[in-house]
């Protein structure tokens, strides 16, 4: 979807705006919870997932910026999507295995088998879902007007989450567990796509001054994680290129959404969800 806007800016050809308009129009009819959160998909009624924020709001923000910059209703709605997701999934003080981070998703109707009694959230913090949300935060902050109140809302969420992302990294390796709420549990492992997403988001947040890092600990954490990624997940190929390892293929809330589900999913080499995140992390690493 973002490609249509990129090509419109590059070529000026109206077909790209037409395509972007079609995608944007779909948001007008996409169902929402009673609070206003977009459903993750039509097949998941009343469910909001962290992954969906990156899928929808980055395009939504770029479209509004490029084609409807004075549409305050749209900017308000984009802000609300981030805020509702944060409020409904952030771990509270009494949560077991509390990392002060965000669960994979929530069911506003509380009918999913995994939904908690209090807010309907899922049981675990899955690294890539949180990675999508963090990347969406740092990317949309580049797009959303600084004069709009939503800029401060997103900035506050980013500044709240960043130190907890840093602290959730494994102390020895520096990278992040697949299921962040179950560090070291048998079957859990260090996962590459979520780790790369975190490195990208942390480095970009520090570079642009979105998050203060007076003792350098955020940069140090990202640098340590990047070093582990290069040493352990980059596989040199005989033709002079490279491959990327240890990306989990999928993570969903269509079943139990529990620890056993996440660790049962296969990993893949050169999965685009991992290798693209590593490219973004590498760009930020070189900039700093």
From TrEMBL:
Pfam families: Glyco_hydro_88
InterPro entries, alphabetized: 6-hairpin_glycosidase_sf (IPR008928), 6hp_glycosidase-like_sf (IPR012341), Glyco_hydro_88 (IPR010905), PolySaccharide_Degr_Enz (IPR052043)
Annotated organism of origin: Lentinula lateritia
Superkingdom of the organism of origin: Eukaryota
Keyword field contains Hydrolase: yes
Alphabetized UniProt keyword annotations: Hydrolase
A molecular-function term among this protein's GO annotations: hydrolase activity
Annotated SUPFAM superfamilies: Six-hairpin glycosidases (SSF48208)
Protein name: Glycoside hydrolase family 105 protein
